[in-house]
Amino acid sequence: MPDSAKTLLLFGATGDLARRMVLPSLFGLHADGLISPDLRIVGTARTDEDGDAFRAMTGAALEQYLPVEARDPKDISTFLERLDYVPLDASRPECFGPLADAVGSRRSDDVAIFLSTAPSLFESSIAGLSRAGLAGSNVRLALEKPLGFDLASSRSINDAVAHVFSEAQIFRIDHYLGKETVQNLLALRFANSLFEPLWREGGIDHVQITVSETVGLEGRVGFYDGAGAIRDMVQNHMLQLLALVAMEPPARFDATGIRDEKVKVLRSLRPIDRATAASHSVIGQYGAGAMAGGPVPGYVEELGKPSATETFVALKVNIDNWRWRGVPFYLRTGKRLPSRQSEIIIQFRDVPHSIFGARALKPNKLVIRLQPEENIRLLLMAKEPGLDRGGLMLREVPLDISLPNAFADSRRRIAYERLLLDLVEGDQTLFVRRDEVEAQWEWVD
Ligand code: BG6
Predict the structure, then answer these.
(1) 30, 163, 175, 237: which is the annotated catalytic residue?
(2) What are 401-436's pLDDT values in tens digits?
(3) DSSP 8-state symbol, 310
C-alpha cells in the first residue's frame, strides 16, 4: 500500500459537490481523527478569492450541510486550519505554477488530487499538473463523473489521463461504491455460505435494481439534457450494482480481485438492439404534477425548451454467462418518482412442489435497501400462530438484518467519506478501472 498523502488538492473547491459532499466528508474524517494531522487540503477553482474567503465559505457549507450534532466548533476551527486556497484558470496549463508553490516541499511526499470539474477541463488540468511537476509517481488522481458521453469520448478522456498517469494512480469515482450497503453486498455474498449455492439460475428467478428519486432537474440544465437517465445513472451506478450482484467470487478482497470479476460481468451483458429494444426497454419523461403537497413543473418547463431526453428508464438485462442464463435483471431509475427509494431485490424461485395445497406461497426474497434507510431483509414464509382449525395459515415474514439496529454504535458515513479516505491512503478497491468504464459505455452505446 502507498503512503498516506500529505496534500490533497481539491479542484472545483467552490462548487456544489465540494460544498455539499466533499468538504463535509473531509470534515467528518478530520473530526474522527481518521486523517493524519499533517494532511493539508488545498482548494482551487476559478473564483478569485483568498484562503480566508475559502475558509469562510467552507465554514458556511459545514453549517449548512452537517447535522447539528456533528458541528463541534473546536473541530471546525482545527479543520479550517488545514485549508488553503489558490485561484486558478484550469483551462490554461501555463498558469499552474502558484498551485505547485502552494504544495511546496510537500511535493516529494504523496499527493492526492480530486478533479471535480467539468470534463472539458480535464485535459488542460492534466497538462497543467504535468507542467507544474505535480504528476510524478507519488501523485494519485481522482476523477469525478461524467467521464465522457459515449465510448469514444470516454476513451479520449482515459487516453489523455493515461498519457500522464499510470492506471495504478487513477481513481475513478462512482459514489455508489462508497455506500455502506453496497459494500455489505460483498460481505453478504462472500462471508456467508447460505446464499452462494442458490445465487444463480436455478435458485434465483430474477433480480430488480431500482433507484427511484423524487428530485427533478435541480438546476442542472446544462448537463442533464445531454445525458438523460441512461447515461447519468445506468451507465455507472446501476451497472456497478448489477456487477456486484452478478460477479463470481473474487480470488481476494482487493482492487484487482474485485475489479477483474466485475469487468467479466460487464462484458457479458447482452446488447439490447433494434429488434429487442421494444420488449426490453421503457423510457419516459416526467410532466408537471404535485410533490409533497405542492405543484412541481414538468421536465421541459424546468429546462425551458422542448426535449426528448429520458428522465426515466426501465431495462430488462440479460447476462450471457453460465451462472445467469435465463435470469433477467430489471433495472429501473427515474427522477420525480413518488418516493426516494433505492433497493436491490433478489427474487428466489418458488419451492418445487407445495405440500400446502391451494394456499398461496410466496417465493423467498432478499431485499437490500440502500436508501432512504439502509437495511437488508430476507422474506420467508412462516406459520401464523394458532390451532389451525381452519387449516394451516402461512404468512410472509421478514428476517431483518436492520443495519442501523445491529450496528447502533457505529456512525453512518456518507459515501464520499469512505472514498476520500481511500484516495488519501491509496486503496483503489472501490474505484472503477478503465476496462470497467469502457465495458459499461460499450453496452450503453
Ligand atoms: C448522481 C447523478 O451521480 O447520482 C444524479 O448525477 C443523482 O442525477 C445522484 O441524483 C444520486 O445519488 P444518491 O447518492 O443521492 O442516490
Answers:
(1) 237
(2) 776 677 777 777 889 999 999 999 999 999 999 999
(3) -
